[in-house]
Amino acid sequence: MLRATPLTEGWILRHPDDAGAALPAAVPGCVHTDLLAAGLIPDPFLGRNEADVAWVGRRQWTYERRLDTGSEHERTDLVFDGLDTAAEIALDGGRLGRVRNMHRSYRFDVTGRRGNLTVRFDSAYTEAEAVRARVGERPSAYAEPFAHIRKMACSFGWDWGPTLVTAGIWRPVRLESWSTARIERVRPVVTVEDGTGVVEVHIGVERTRSEAQLAVEARVGGVRARAAVDGTAVAVRLRVPEADLWWPRGYGGQPLYELELTLLHGTVVLDARRHRIGFRTVELDTSADEHGSGFTLVVNGERLFARGVNWIPDDVFPSRITRERYRERLGQAAAAGVDLVRVWGGGIYESEDFYDACDELGLLVWQDFPFACAAYPEEQPLRGEVEAEARENVVRLMPHPSLVLWNGNNENLWGFRDWGWEPRLAGDSWGEGYYLGLLPRVVAELDPTRPYTAGSPWSGSWAHHPNDPAHGTHHSWEVWNRRDWADYRLNVPRFVAEFGWQAPPAYATLRRALPGEELAPDSPGMLHHQKADDGNGKLERGLAPHFALPEGDFGRWHYLTQLNQARAVATGIEHWRSHWPVCAGTVVWQLNDCWPVTSWAAIDGDGREKPLYHELKRLYADRLLTLRARDGELVLAAVNQSAAPWAAELTLRRMNVAGEVVASTRTALRAAARTVADVAVPPELVPAGPKEFLVADAWRSPLFERSRELGGEAESGGGLRALHFPVPDREFLCPRPEFDVSVAPDAVTVTARTLVRDLLLQADRLHPSARADTGLVTLLPGERVTIGVDGWRIPGGREAADAVRSALYCLEPAR
């Protein structure tokens, strides 16, 4: 039986310029984390330390350990699951090989050898600049040479990330000892035929003895099959009657089946593999219609509106991301109503832990191949590396039922057409051959059950502009960069794969990241942790149409920018969801951060949830109410993405700033399953001027503990509300908010005496570990909300109430 021995202990790290000095090295890990552990560099996430450690990415580094490969087996392999990035591997002075791709694994025959194992890493800059000198310069959104090396692009910095160019043994390394034969790879092609789960398992075998009579046994769902291995490859087909289907969250369960494979020589077990699979079908409908050409995911025959988020590496040092951290972050996504996670192309193919969590949580995975925001050369040595990594990772990830889409790149087809690349390239290769040639061929050959799209954005062909909203996927960045977020309502893309708005991280995150600094929007640390081009200028210009800009009040600025982020994203999602099925998905940029930074994320670099995160719970719920203008009239859209019809009593109230009802009506609300129903607002209920607003309630919500005048009960016991203010926030003549606060050990209750708009408890201002379970809330006079607080037991007495009041923010009249 194959024996695997992890090589995690006994490593040291040497820097050749340091007279042979060594320090302990953690494997998996990277140079930065080893230097941090040894106290030799400051934390690059704090203050402006990032600049002080830039030298680390420019040096050569060597990992060493003693290796003894003695074994009773015929063959021993040294296996690296990931090396970052350009390295030479040697054993007792003899070279084993040279590698240059972070996204691949490597295997070396070390049978019977022992001695000093060294892995010498060149600087990624040295490798990238050497390749660039060979194949020529290429245009890029950033000055760094990331397109000339197969490495996580955002190591070189991004408009939300630091420049921390890593090196190291970033994934596990082990010895594998075996005799006669081993399983080289497993490629399960999983589908469903007339209710029967079908697995066609393609197995590759490596041998030491070509004459050995081998067999493979496969088992899944109580079904067993056996086949002789003729040579080095065999296929086994299994059929599981009445297989339970795997569904995305909100559409059904996530049953997973254990696929077990055993390689046999007679009765002797040589090797075994286990993979979890799920039975489901997936299609991508891009057919043409009267609106253009669509982009709709279809799982098990069910057409989906994708409620998505973009995912970046959760740490700029990805070797630090544990299984538990993946589970926490993806659990946060699922709890917010997300059902699709796009793994963005400037990062990595994530670890098995990521996809395992998505399988279990019912999160669909859209997987980019790692190309982003640059023209990528197609010459050697890059082309061979691209094909090798694609083949390995397609096979590695295809057992996961959560994976539903392969995507060729991020924004490179768009960049070629719109960012001035075409004339600068003057005929040089730039990646088109990957996205429209190599990658779709690899996917079609190895993983024919999943759809492939050439890029994001992409209209489906060069017959249309790559970012044409009427065709395929669309990235909506003109709004953030140059326009007001109200302009999200001006068009209805077929699928919005990127859009978003910036906000700073939580207050406690800023306090930790910028110790001792007097916080201000333009303080040195705040500016250093704002990586977007003119980011603060865009934040202020984005605030100006909606809120009076605070002067010298960092707390108000912080609150308003976070509120504005939630407002912007809500405007887009409410509008686009109301146009289902023309629009078939929104993928917010972005879910997470890789360090503490002002960014588009809903969860900041310390894992704290911004107000946007809680807003996503409302926006991505199965049922959503939104009030909006359509064809010059005010309409209530009832979005029902659930499998059951939605029947409720709808109450519409036109109210004034004093909380008085000017006019009201009740009517029945009916929306069939997976549809959107529009209800016209009667003209007499449309609010006019800066002192009126409209409230729409579908049954009574437990969030607002008020009399039953709010509406009737419904079968779910829950309730929904939509609000419409006819003028911008800064022009609305709201009263000065008045409310009462009471505290309990694990909750805060706020009772409104006036209209209280966008109340927010920033629990981390009470204690860094405190979290609130509720985000922005608007209360009518007499309503109250109870906000759960976790991570800090609130003390009693007047001091506690005063402390809580200092952490409560809401909209106030314009001064």
Strand order of the largest sheet: 3-2-4-9-6-7
Secondary structure class reads: alpha+beta
Question: What is the helical fraction, as a range of percent?
Answer: 10-25%
Q: Strand count, sense and closure of the main sheet?
A: 6 strands, antiparallel
The averaged pLDDT comes out at: 95
Distance between the termini: 77 Å
Number of helices: 16
Q: Which value, in Å, is the CA radius of gyration?
A: 28 Å
DSSP strand content: 25-35%
Poorly predicted runs of 5 or more residues? 700-717
- Count of individual beta strands: 44
What general form does the structure show? globular
Overview of the structural elements:
The protein is 19% helix and 32% strand. It is built from 16 helices and 44 strands. β16 and β17 (268-277) form a beta hairpin. α4 packs parallel to α5 (352-361) and α6 (382-397) runs parallel beside α9 (432-446). The longest helix is centred in the C-terminal third of the chain and has 24 residues, at 554-577.
